[in-house]
Amino acid sequence: MAHFDTEYQRLEASYSDSPPGEENLLVHVPEGSKSPWHHIENLDLFFQRVYNLHQKNGFTCMLLGEIFELVQLVFVVAFTVFLANCVDYDILFANKFVNHTDSSKVTLPDAFLPVDVCSARIRDNVFVIFILIISGVFWLHRLVKFIYNICCYWEIRSFYINALKMSMTDLPYFTWQEVQARIIEIQKEHQICIHKKELTELDIYHRILRFKNYMVAMVNKSLLPVRFRLPLLGDTVFYTRGLKYNFELIFFWGPGSLFENEWSLKPEYKRGGNRLELADRLSSRILWIGIANLLLCPVILIWQILYAFFSYTEVIKREPGSLGARCWSLYGRFYLRHFNELDHELMSRLSKGYKASSKYMNCFMSPLLTVVAKNVAFFAGSILAVLIALTIYDEDVLAVEHVLSSITLLGICITVCRSFIPDKHMVFCPEQLLKVILAHIHYMPDHWQGNAHRYETRDEFAQLFQYKAVFILEELLSPVITPFILIFCLRRKSLEIIDFFRNFTVDVVGVGDTCSFAQMDVRQHGHPAWMSAGKTEASIYQQAEDGKTELSLMHFAITNPHWQPPRESTHFISLLKEKVHREAAAGQQGIIAENPAFTSTHSLQSDSEPRSLIANLLMGPPSLASLHLGREGSINPVSIGVSEGASALRSLSPVSTSQHLRGSYPSARLPRPDHPAVVAGRAMTGSGTDARTISSGSSAWEGQLSSMVLSEYASTEMSIHALYMHEMHNQQSRGEVSRHTWHRQESDESSESVNEDMEAARTFPRSSTFPTTSHQAGAAQQSGSQRHYGRTSDPVSGSFRAQRTPRMPMGGWSEENQMSRHHDPVPEEGSEDELPPHIHKVT
C-alpha cells in the first residue's frame, strides 16, 4: 500500500456540521440548570448503548438475554463435565445388567454414577480441573461485565424515559430514525455534546460506527489478509468472528492498540516520521497476540465444538436441510456494507436479497449430482418406507437394535439428496436474478456483468453467500487457523496498516478521529468511473473501490432525508437524482430504450419471475411513476399514478404490505390523506387516522405501519439509484479493454530503491475505464507530490489533478506486465527501506 508524505490533519473546511465560527464552541450552561445528560464524556459508548437498547427491544429483553447467556455458559460447562465423568455408559447401552429388587426395568438414574464416585473422577482428571478453572475465570469476568452493563443500561433506560419521552413498552414500535431525531432535538436542551451546538445524523453514525467504518474501508482496500490461494481449493476467503475479534483487539481497543480511547488515535500514529518504528512495534504486538491465540487454541476449540454441538444438533435432527441453507458470510457483510450503515440497515437490505440469491445459487445444479441424488433418494426412500410400514404394523419393531437409528439416518439421507434435485418448474435465468440481487446488495464486481451463467461467477458469489455448514465449519476451524494468519500474514502488513491509519484518519469537530472514507466525500475519495469524473481529486490510493463512496453517500442521504451534506456531496446527489428523473421522463417520449434507467431495469423481467422481479421498479419517486411495465416485459410510456404499482422488488422483501411508497426522499413527506397508500393503511389498521401517526401513542401498529412505508420507499429508491449507477458505470466502461482480477496480491515488499520506484512510474498501467498515457501516469507519480485530503498537488504549479485507476472487482487492484510500482517515496530520511510495499498484478 502506498505511503504519502503527510501529517494527520484536522478536518474542518469540508465538513459543515458546525455553523461558521462555532467549530470550537464550548457551550456554557449554568451549574444549577444542567441536566443529568449534560456533557457526556464518552459519547461513543453512550450512543452505542442507546442503539443497542433500541435493537434489543428495551431494558427487560436485554436483561433477560444477558442472564440467559450467563446461565448458558454454566450449563454448557457443567453438562459436559457431567456427561464425561458421571455417566455409566455400559448401563446406558445395555452392556451391563443392573440387579433390581422391585423391578427388572432399567431407568435413566441407574446410569448415573454415585456422587462420591463422580467427584473422585473429576478430582483425578487434571484436564477437567484445568477446563473448570479457565471456565470459572471467564464466567466471573462475564459476571462482572454483566453487572457493569446493567448499571450502564439502567442509565440508558432512564435517558429513554426522561429525556426522549419513550417508554420501554413502546420502544419496539419506534424506528431508529425516530429515536435519532429526538436525540438531535434534545441536544439543544441537554447539551449532550458541548463541542457542538447542534448534532447531526452523521455525528451519531460516526460515533456508533467509528471502528466498523475503518474495518469496511480496510476490506474495501484489500488490506486485511482474508483472501488466500490454496493448492486444491483455489481462491478462498477465510474471515470468522474469531479473526475479526483479533483484528479489533489489535487495532482499536486492546492493550497497546492504535487508539488511546474510543474517539482518538494515539498522537504517534498521526505522524509519519517514525512509521518504521511503529510498524515494528505493531508487528511484535501481533506476534504476541498470535502466540496467545496458539496457547489458548485447545480451550477455545473445545468450547467451539461443544457450543456448536449443543446449538445445532437439535436443529439438524429437526430440519436436516438446514445445513444446506445459505447465509451471508462475515466477509460478505463487510464487503457489501456501506460506510455509515448500521447493523439493522445492513441486515434488512441483505435479507431482501436473500430469496433472489438463493434462487441464483440453485440455478447451478450439477446434472451428474442430480442423477445420483435421485437414485440414492429412491433406494433410501424404499428402505425407509418398509421400516415405517413394519413399525405401523407392530410397534415392537422399534425395539429391535438400530431400527430407530436407521429410520433417522435414512430420513437425513433423503433430505440431503433432495437438496441436489432442482425444482422441475425452475427456469434458468441467472442474469435476471443477478440484476435483482444487485438491486438489494448494491455492490458487484464488474466482471460478473454478462457472466452470471458461469460457474466462476457462482463460486465467487458463494464466498459472499455461503452454506450454513461452511459457516459452522469455518467457525470450528477458526481457533486453529487464526493464530497462523496473525503470525504469518497480518504481521507482514504492519507498515501498510500504519500508513493506512495515518493517511485515512481525520479529526472531525465534535466527533473526534474518524475514518476519512466515512465522510463520504466524493472530492476526496470518489472514483472517476462512478459518476465522479470532474468532481474528485483523489489519487488511486485514495479512491474507494467499487463505487463505495458514491453508493454510501446516496444510501445515507436516502436513509436520512433531513441530513444536510456538504456542498460537493449535495451537488453530486442533486445531479444524480436529476439524471434519473430526466431519463425516466424521457421514457414518456418513446426514447427510453437507450437510457441506463431502462437498461438497468428491463433485464429484471423473466419467465420464472414475471411480476416479482419487475414489481414496478420505476414506481418509486413520483417522477418515475409514468413508466409502466407491461405484461410482456416492455415498458409502456403510459402516464399512471404511483398507486398502480407496488414497490421495487417488493416481493423479494420479507415485509409485504399493500401500502405504496411516499414522496421523494429530500422532502421526507408522507402521502396525501387521499393517496391510495394511506387508504390501504387505514384498511389494514382499521383506523381513520392518517399514516403520519408514528409516535402519538394512539396506535402503535399505525406507527409501525407508517415506518414500514418509509423504510420500503427508501429501500426502493436506493435500489433504483444503485442499478442506475451500475448501468452508467458499465456503459462508461463498455468498449474499453477490461482486465479484471478477483483480489489484490498480498505484498509486503517495502524496501525498494527510488530508481525502481521511478521506473515503475514510467510503466504506470492504463485504467480500463479512464486510460492514461505513460507520460501522464509518470507525471502523476512525482516524488514531491503531497496528499491533502485526497488531492495530489504539484509542488511547482500548486495545481490539483485527479488520478485515474483501473476498475477492480471486490476491492482489488490490477496492474499490467507484473510490474511493481510505488507511490511517492518518503522524503523523511532518504533511506530505501522506508518505501511502502509494491503492488503487483495477480494472475
From TrEMBL:
Top-level taxonomic group: Eukaryota
Principal localisation: membrane
Keyword Glycoprotein: yes
Localisation: Cytoplasmic vesicle, Autophagosome membrane; Endoplasmic reticulum membrane; Golgi apparatus, trans-Golgi network membrane; Late endosome membrane
UniProt signal peptide: none
Assigned keywords, A-Z: Acetylation, Autophagy, Cytoplasmic vesicle, Endoplasmic reticulum, Endosome, Glycoprotein, Golgi apparatus, Lipid transport, Membrane, Mitochondrion, Phosphoprotein, Transmembrane, Transmembrane helix, Transport, Ubl conjugation
Known catalytic reactions: a 1,2-diacyl-sn-glycero-3-phosphoethanolamine(in) = a 1,2-diacyl-sn-glycero-3-phosphoethanolamine(out); a 1,2-diacyl-sn-glycero-3-phospho-L-serine(in) = a 1,2-diacyl-sn-glycero-3-phospho-L-serine(out); a 1,2-diacyl-sn-glycero-3-phosphocholine(in) = a 1,2-diacyl-sn-glycero-3-phosphocholine(out)
Membrane topology note: Multi-pass membrane protein
Residue intervals passing through the bilayer: 59-84, 122-140, 286-310, 368-390, 402-421
Region annotation (Disordered) ranges: 1-20, 653-675, 731-843
GO biological process: autophagy of mitochondrion; lipid transport; piecemeal microautophagy of the nucleus; protein localization to phagophore assembly site; reticulophagy
GO CC annotation, single: recycling endosome membrane
Ranges annotated as biased composition (Low complexity): 762-786
Annotated Acidic residues bias: 748-758
UniProt feature, compositional bias: Basic and acidic residues: 1-10, 736-747
Key word Acetylation present: yes
Annotated function: Phospholipid scramblase involved in autophagy. Cycles between the preautophagosomal structure/phagophore assembly site (PAS) and the cytoplasmic vesicle pool and supplies membrane for the growing autophagosome. Lipid scramblase activity plays a key role in preautophagosomal structure/phagophore assembly by distributing the phospholipids that arrive through ATG2 from the cytoplasmic to the luminal leaflet of the bilayer, thereby driving autophagosomal membrane expansion.
Family to which the UniProt record says this protein belongs: Belongs to the ATG9 family.
Name recorded for this polypeptide: Autophagy-related protein 9
